[in-house]
Design the sequence.
């Protein structure tokens, strides 16, 4: 770090023109900008990229020694991995779809149906976002668990239980940007649509939804990535049959001490997340958002 | 189709102490342009929203063409509406915006195309059909909003300050456009909310002047301008000199001068307010002379406006551009013709 700081000062010293000419304010100063950018980049590299690189490196180091693609071949060939990959992806996609649908409907009601306490509900959503994810699962256990209030439905330990918990927990992540988008909407547009003869469903479909698309895309992509990497909810439902990629990493690293295998799964998980994010960026740019 | 408001009272949030509209009675004849004129907060927009169905009166009825629509939701009233902010749908093209109402009414596809073309033609926006609203200027957007409202062929068109967001030059052009549209659509009743007396005087067949949630007076522009019934109407519809006078026989006395004006049967000795339009006040000798001192003089190009202090009251006079205008502090004489003055009931006014 000291070295980086030293370099920063040196670069800055060189970039400053002697005698403060007037053009220096408007002309681009690549050296000065670089000097400002270096410390954060150095921190990022030290605390984030370096450990990540270690994980990637470890994934090429089988227990038998040397550097090879064997861990990848082993993991990709195993049925457990493929099952976990499939479970992760469909759970994440289904949860995201559920969150978008439920979040859109709830945000519509909160934003456009005047009822006492709507403001309070909107504020509660902000608080809800700060809750830990396992709390929801714990609460669901009290309701539906084997000794729960509603009775012992066994579905909590199935993928459907995980789906329910994820939708419950992540829906507010969709509602937050949606409520912000709805508050920007010109009510005169809704009234114009109404006086032109449109009823509520048409107004929602043709006036509100198009305006809310960027917010839906933002909330949906956030939820999708969060669901792909969700660990606490799956762990707390105690669903034995539901193994997602993060669970597989946990199992391999902590329970089986198979570090190369765990790292391979982790790398795949990261790739899927980054890939989906890239896809989202491309799609949203195409949509002109 | 005519519009009738039958003692409509509106209170927001159920608060009866501060009424947004206090038992308004108003009739707009079929094909008539009625301007609702008043300062902000006078209840004129509330009245329009009651007709559109966006506010529910706590009492009274709204009738369209003789049919009670008080309980009908806005989408079943068949009203065209144009607002100050245009309220176009930003993600739809101009032609899709205009087609919105027709689609909502399940009009046949071939007819939609024809009626959209017709509405855009009428507002002079046919060349912009495939643009998006953000690619248009304010005046063009307002034309599209008017086309969208007209496409459903409403019998009633509500206009809520439609020109207030436009600059002055565009405004007079659009005013002429609206007058032309009214000539082309003689059966459409229009309710036109504005705070601009020029718009009201130019466009309206009749003007309803509103203040403090109440209807102050209603009549043709000429009636309201030439013989206003109260001081508020006199000062809001065109400027007015309003001075307190004492009624005599065949005239009034003001500032020690006897003025000849029609007293119209008002009892002698009563207090009243005399109303004279500034442009009807002349400078120099003449009938009904008033002596005063110039307190302020403004050159407005074609005219000079003089603020003359007469016995503690300010009298405004708009006179043709003067070659040698008086200067501040000069004593001057003003006059006006007896039949240019109107006698109003006495009231405290700040005209």
Sequence:
């Amino acid at each position: 770090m000291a070295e980086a700081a030293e370099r920063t000062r040196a670069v800055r010293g060189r970039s400053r023109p002697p005698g403060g000419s007037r053009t220096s304010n408007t002309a681009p100063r690549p050296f000065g900008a670089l000097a400002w950018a270096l410390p954060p980049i150095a921190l990022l590299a030290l605390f984030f990229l370096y450990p990540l690189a270690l994980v990637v490196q470890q994934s090429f180091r089988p227990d038998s020694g040397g550097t090879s693609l064997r861990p990848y071949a082993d993991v990709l060939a195993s049925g457990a991995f493929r099952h976990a990959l499939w479970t992760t992806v469909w759970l994440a996609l289904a949860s995201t779809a559920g969150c978008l649908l439920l979040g859109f409907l709830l945000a519509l009601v909160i934003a456009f149906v005047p009822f006492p306490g709507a403001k309070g509900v909107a504020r509660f959503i902000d608080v809800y976002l700060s809750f830990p994810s396992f709390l929801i699962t714990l609460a669901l256990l009290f309701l539906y668990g084997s000794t729960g209030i509603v009775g012992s439905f066994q579905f909590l330990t199935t993928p459907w239980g995980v789906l329910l918990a994820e939708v419950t927990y992540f829906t507010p992540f969709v509602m937050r940007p949606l409520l912000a988008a709805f508050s920007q909407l010109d009510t005169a547009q809704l009234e114009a649509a109404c006086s032109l003869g449109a009823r509520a469903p048409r107004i929602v479909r043709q006036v509100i939804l198009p305006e809310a698309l960027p917010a839906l895309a933002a909330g949906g992509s956030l939820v999708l990535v969060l669901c792909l990497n969700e660990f606490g909810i799956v762990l707390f439902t105690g669903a034995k049959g539901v193994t997602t990629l993060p669970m597989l990493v946990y199992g391999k690293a902590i329970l089986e001490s198979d570090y190369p295998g765990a790292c391979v799964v982790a790398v795949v998980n990261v790739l899927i997340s980054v890939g989906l994010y890239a896809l989202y960026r491309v799609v949203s740019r195409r949509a002109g958002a | 189709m005519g519009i009738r408001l039958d003692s409509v009272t509106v209170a927001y949030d159920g608060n009866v102490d501060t009424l947004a509209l206090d038992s308004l009675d108003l009739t707009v004849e079929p094909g008539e342009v009625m301007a609702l004129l008043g300062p902000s907060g006078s209840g004129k927009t509330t009245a329009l929203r009651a007709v559109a169905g966006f506010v529910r009166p706590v009492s009274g009825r709204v009738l369209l063409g003789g049919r009670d629509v008080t309980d009908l939701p806005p989408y079943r009233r068949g009203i065209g509406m144009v607002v100050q902010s245009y309220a176009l749908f930003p993600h739809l093209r101009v032609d899709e915006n205009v087609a919105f109402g027709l689609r909502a009414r399940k009009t046949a596809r071939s007819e939609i195309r024809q009626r959209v073309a017709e509405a855009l033609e009428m507002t002079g926006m046919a060349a912009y059909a495939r643009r998006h609203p953000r690619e248009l200027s304010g005046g063009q957007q307002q034309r599209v909003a008017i086309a969208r409202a007209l496409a459903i062929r409403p019998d009633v068109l509500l206009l809520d300050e439609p020109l207030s967001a436009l600059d002055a030059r565009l405004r007079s052009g659009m005013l002429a456009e609206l007058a032309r549209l009214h000539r082309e659509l003689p059966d459409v009743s229009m309710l036109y909310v504005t705070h601009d007396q020029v718009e009201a005087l130019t466009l309206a067949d009749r003007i309803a002047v509103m203040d403090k949630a109440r209807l102050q007076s209603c009549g043709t522009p000429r009636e309201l301008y030439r013989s206003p019934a109260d001081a508020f109407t006199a000062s809001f519809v065109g400027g007015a000199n309003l001075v307190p006078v004492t009624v005599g026989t065949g005239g009034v006395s003001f500032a020690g001068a006897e003025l000849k004006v029609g007293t119209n049967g008002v009892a002698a000795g009563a207090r009243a307010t005399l109303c004279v339009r500034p442009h009807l006040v002349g400078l120099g000798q003449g009938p009904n002379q008033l002596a005063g001192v110039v307190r302020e003089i403004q050159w407005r190009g074609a005219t000079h406006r003089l603020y003359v202090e007469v016995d503690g009251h300010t009298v405004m006079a708009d006179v043709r551009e003067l070659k040698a205008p008086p200067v501040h502090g000069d004593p001057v004489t003003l006059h006006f013709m007896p039949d240019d003055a109107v006698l109003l009931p006495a009231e405290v006014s700040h005209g």
